[in-house]
Specification:
The structure holds 3 protein chains of 3 kinds.
Chain A (H helix, E strand, L loop, with lengths): L2 H34 L5 H5 L2 E2 L4 E2 L2 H32 L5 H15 L2 H25 L12 H25 L3 H9 L4 H12 L1 H17 L27 H11 L3 H37 L3
Antiparallel strand pairs in A: 1-2
Helix pairs in contact in A: 1-11, 3-6, 3-9, 4-6, 5-6, 6-9, 7-8, 9-11, 10-11
Chain B lengths: L2 H22 L4 H4 L2 H4 L5 E7 L4 H14 L3 E8 L1 H10 L4 E4 L5 H11 L3 E16 L6 E3 H8 L17 E5 L4 H9 L11 E3 L2 H10 L3 E6 L6 E3 L1 E3 L5 E2 L3 H5 L6 E9 L4 H11 L1 H10 L13
Parallel strand pairs in B: 1-2, 1-3, 5-10, 6-7, 6-8
Antiparallel strand pairs in B: 3-12, 4-8, 4-9, 4-12, 10-11
Chain C lengths: L15 H13 L2 H17 L8 H4 L21 E2 L6 E2 L2 H32 L2 H15 L3 H20 L7 H26 L2 H9 L4 H12 L1 H17 L2 H6 L18 H8 L8 H37 L1
Antiparallel strand pairs in C: 1-2
The chains are: A mainly alpha, B alpha/beta, C mainly alpha.
Amino acid sequence: MNKTGKDYLLAALTGLALVIILVILVVLFGEILWNGAPVVTAEFLTEAPTADMTGGGIFPAIYGTVFMTLLMTIAGVPIGLATAIWLNEYASSRSKIAAIIRTAIHNLAGVPSIVFGLFGLGFFVIFVGGTMDSLIYGDIPRPIWGQPSILWASLTLAVLTLPVVIVTTEEALKTVPGELRDASLALGATKFQTTLTIVLPNARGGILTGVILGVSRGMGEVAPIIFVGAANFLPELPDDLRDMFMHLGYHVYALATQSPNVDAARPALFGTVLVLLALTFSLNLIAIIIRSRSRRALRPS
Amino acid sequence: MNTVSRILCLIGFLASVSLALSACGNRYDEITGGEGAKQSGGRQTLTIKGSDTMVILAQRWAEGFMAANANSTIQVSGGGSGTGIAALINGTTDLANSSRKIKEREIETVRKNRSAEVVETPVAIDTIAVYVSEKNPVKKLNIETIKQIYRRRIKNWSEVGGPDLPIVLYSRENNSGTYAYFKEQVLDDEDFAAEAQTLPGTAAVINAVARDEKGIGYGGIAFGEGVRALEIAGEDGIHYAPTMENAIGGIYPLARFLYIYSAGEPTGIARQFLDFALSEIGQSVVDGVGYYPLPREMRGNE
Amino acid sequence: MSEKRPPLTEALPTPRWHRWAERLIAALAFSAVLAIALIFLFIAREAIPLFFEEGVRDEMRLRDLFIPRIWDGYDEAVAIWQPIGGTPKFNMLPLFVGSLKVTILAMLISVPLGVGCAVFVAIYAPPRIREITKPIIELLAGVPSVVLGFFALMIVASFTQAVFGFTYRLNGVVAAIGLAITIVPVIFTISEDAIQAVPKSLSEAALALGARKYQIALRVIIPAAIPGITAAIILGFGRAIGETMIVLMASGNAAVMEIFDFTTSVRTVTATIAAELGEVARGEPHWRILFLLGVILFIITFIINLGGKMITDRLHRKLTAG
């Protein structure tokens, strides 16, 4: 084969890779949209499941997912922000401590999700919850804090999404030009003031992107919450931190593998998948839009 | 106030709201002996975990009970009989559904962990059916043959009167009471072959067998749609179908009770729930789900 | 903020609460380190008593966790994972073999796809395609793994069954395909970044010497991007071996001790933990063994991540120094 031929060959092979990926994407979203769209009606989104979860709606799962995500964000974002701020604003570039922290973040990102589940169980439910029970209540026949609940599930996921938030926030902080900080310091502001009033507002877009990406990631994780708080069928919405909760991703898993009548559950299954995808998808889309907007804003005009 | 401060305030507000909500709940006062427990008007919660075989039954009972008792909340989860009993031991459930009898060792552990004796309440009768695809011509097998099949000593349908196709084994996860029961009664406590695909619920097993003409599976009778339940012969060599008469009459070899276990004598809402399950209405729900109601003598109450 | 403007030669003292805020931030910065330490500590805490408890010896010997053994009713030494029954059998080998099988197969699928796509987008594609592809692949990256498990279970399995006619509908191949879909975005993104980071001067020099695009790609750009591509592969491997939902739903979950046949069902370490932990009473040997599996998994992914970083750093240094 001559050189032109070889060129076309490589282009064709690698282009094929792209095509295959796109085909998979199209089939994935297409099947879900096609089978799920007819199911997602207003009733589906606002009612509780009936008839062994093959009928009715998935409102408790939506509510549970949102509530858990809110708690997760409140718990995790401030810590992630603080870490990124310290790494970027306060730590020297040659600091050994910073290197250790970065290694820890890198490794945290690589921990398998099921191991987070074990951590949630072993640390939050058993250790923290159990200790709280002994301290607050003394001897009781049944654990109250020391059992799976929405609180522990949210905290476990907060730890899981920590790396995402930290890394993206740090990137956002880096985009703020050093001159702004220098100017602020020169005017007599403290480092903290500078960070709070100059750096953070300017990095607002990137930080928001990171938070939203972290939230979207945490919302979709199921393995960590299987035995740390998610439940199959709860007629009541969780309004107490010690309650268990229904969850969209867990509902998909339960319907797909444990439902009594797989054919009857199919519509509900596709509908739930569609709702979950729509939620994570829109969050990611918002994050991408914010990021490109803030990048454009920072470009020198 | 700039954006960051505003966001911080919002976060702080939400956090305090959540904490305030948690302080308000008296749902757990029954356990701690707090004020909420004394009020009969207060909301009462019951947690039931365990057998996937029984999870639909328990959910329907829960729906019926909650409709009749407005102030009650019942949470039902599956996970398998083993999960339910483990939860009973750990104290994370009030009642445990189980499709197998509790083991001596587990009774010991409950005694140790929860300082209470296990109370066993049979609530329904189930038959374990062995299923094959409707396309499979095989209609009856005896238990010894089924055991050899699940031990991979018989690997092809032609060896038992079927077509020349390899036998594909479907089984349950090991936390399942159905799994434990089958292992004990059919396999004489020998191991399943490693190739047996483990599925998390009887419905999944049925679904798989319905789509696989090479498949064989087992599970509670209530789920059997789209598949054929085989007639099984035990030691007497006579094949019986898993019908209600055969089950209650005790002649179908794989008939069993479905149980609800509690640590200590059930009281309060747990007692009311059990009474409901054993009542006329509760037992007709059993029939509706597809299991077999208990004979009247066993129901124990008015 | 202070009202007066101080002379530029004089620094203002830091208000006290700012110092506290800074201390808080510094303390919180250790959160990631604390998290990793706590994770390891508390899963090890549940697993370690396995080696010291009395009652454990009655149930099994520790070597049975890893070494095949001739059990009652068997003719030869076998490695079996069957924790429930008269004699519980806890050999972990079939689980690790299962994890490795699906991971390796998933890598074999996803690396050519991911790297190939990255090469195409970075070298051959017109800019407009490049701009659309990155967000599209990011979208794929955002799909939760439970959705991909559902996809593999319901759609991929039926497809492979129709096309290949495997004996088992849910098997290692189906699970590997599902895994591959998860990893491709990771491999693509990092490889594409690595390729883009190769200095344009290198390819321009090659061009000036008369090289064709494919020659530049294969002989200049890809070799220069090797550190990044290696990082991508290692990261993808770590991700795949730790993935839970996809294998839980699509692999058949049979602890088959079979090394070469990928069309049998498999049971991975992650799926075993997820499926069995709910059922075990706290403190039982089965419970501790599941946590031990978690500890081993944690150590494996830790080593992969650490080792991966070291390898990439060394490759990077080799390329930029020479």
